[in-house]
Amino acid sequence: MVENLKLYLAGEWTEGTGDEVHELISPATGEHVANVPLAAPADIDRAVAAAREAQAEYRHWSAFERADLLHRIADAVESDVTEIARIQTLEQGKPYHAESVADIAEANQYFTNSAEDVKRLEGRVIPTTDRNKRMFTFNRPVGVWAAITPWNFPVTIPLEYIGPGLATGNAVIAKPPEFTPWGLLRLAEAFDAAGVPKGLVSIIPGAGEIGEQLVTHAGVDAVGFTGSSETGRRIISQMGIKRSIMEMSGNGPTIVTDDANLEAAAELAVYGAYYNAGQVCCATERVIVVDSVHDEFLDLVLKASGSIRLGDPFDEATNMGPLNNEPTAAKMDRHIADAAERGAAILTGGGRAAGFPTDLYYRFTVIDQVPEQALVARDESFGPVLPILVAADDDEAVAIANRTHLGLQAAVFTSSLRRAFWYADRVRSGTVVINESTDFWETFQPFGGAAGTDTGWGRGSLIEFTDPQTVVIDIGNVR
Ligand code: ADP
After folding, report:
1. Would you say 166 and 118 are in contact if contact means Cβ atoms under 8 Å apart?
2. What is the pLDDT of residues 96-109, one digit of tens each?
3. Cβ of residue 215 lying under 6 Å from some atom of ligand 1
4. Which helix (H) or strand (E) is 63 found in, with range?
5. Which of 228, 343, 394, 411 sits at 20 to 30 Å (Cα–Cα) from 185?
6. How many CB atoms sit inside 10 A of residue 17's CB?
7. CATH numbers and ranges of domains, the chain
């Protein structure tokens, strides 16, 4: 059955005024599962106007009233987890049992975390030189946010903007990609159930042009973006002076030192490379192993790779599903071919798997002796690949780790606390995880990159969704 989706626009479920429809094809089955109406420019204007009108009133709600609203949304989301997770697997391809349910089960936290935090979002009282002045700061809502989000976590990433955005008194217009909007649209039913003011949130799926119209719209005050560095740079150059939180690509190194628990390091490096088929901005994109433990580590990696079950994402035994789309699979093809040409050793996988309903099922690939110049080491691959680079010692491991422009999240495996901090002090990365996968995160964890990949710390930072305002009172001029 093909589902005819509707836009969630200005408080209504509508097909919009455009005549373009995207046929949503499941990467898992190759079947046409939904029709997605694409927003026309007039629909974007309508979403913005409705958001401005709703926000003008909503901004006066007290923090506690907003928190109550967010708790009601969280409750409504919680009661629909399995259906949202099913839709997510169908449109995105991630394993239902191994990943999708757990991912959606924590969706409510984006609302409850923000609801709790906003009650303690305090301003300041600032001492003045003049004894008659009193000076305060307030955290005001910015206004209307556009949330431009990708397809790898198509439901929860938009919530990183919608949760804190609403908590702090803003309106949010979310633009998911046209090929993964369904789960988020389903979740939007919770907004109606919770009594979100009409127009305060809109969800308008579409391709990049719709995102561009949104971020450059004069009625949009701020932009939250998660996606590739190329698109992020383009948005920054186009949007003009707007508040923004940009979360872009990563090339997360996992460093394995000579005193590490090698078994844990191997298992967690493999996990960080195949979880969500590697389509995670903080995936384990490269492993840097100190030479003296390389051979033993490699054996353990190959052993750990044996636990990966590529298959139908609805099957209970499956822990890795297909890639989401052809450009991602084609990038994997390019990265692997380039590594082979440069003389690296492709030990497992190395290409697409046969015998599946689509060409997007990719074999888990371990590549050893990868030179630093190889694409798979230098750029984000965003697929199930584990490239292994060898460093002579700790100093060289840090040097290799830091030769990147994408310092989002790194992992270090060591049994020594001294060494753990030595690395944390030196690795240029928004987060350094010790003895865990690069794919570790909490929904409230400050999350953002170093080395030019990100601006802002969306998750875990309500204050970035606000504008500071200083109020000065002269108490001497009162009659
Ligand atoms: P990915 O490689 O993860 O698909 P993109 O950066 O291409 O990442 O896409 C992330 C989001 O940015 C998607 O919602 C996409 O439609 C949107 N997008 C792409 N191009 C633009 C643009 N020029 N302006 C605004 N949004 C865009």
Report:
1. no
2. 999 999 999 999 99
3. yes
4. helix 63-78
5. 228
6. 15
7. 3-248+456-468 (3.40.605.10), 253-434 (3.40.309.10)
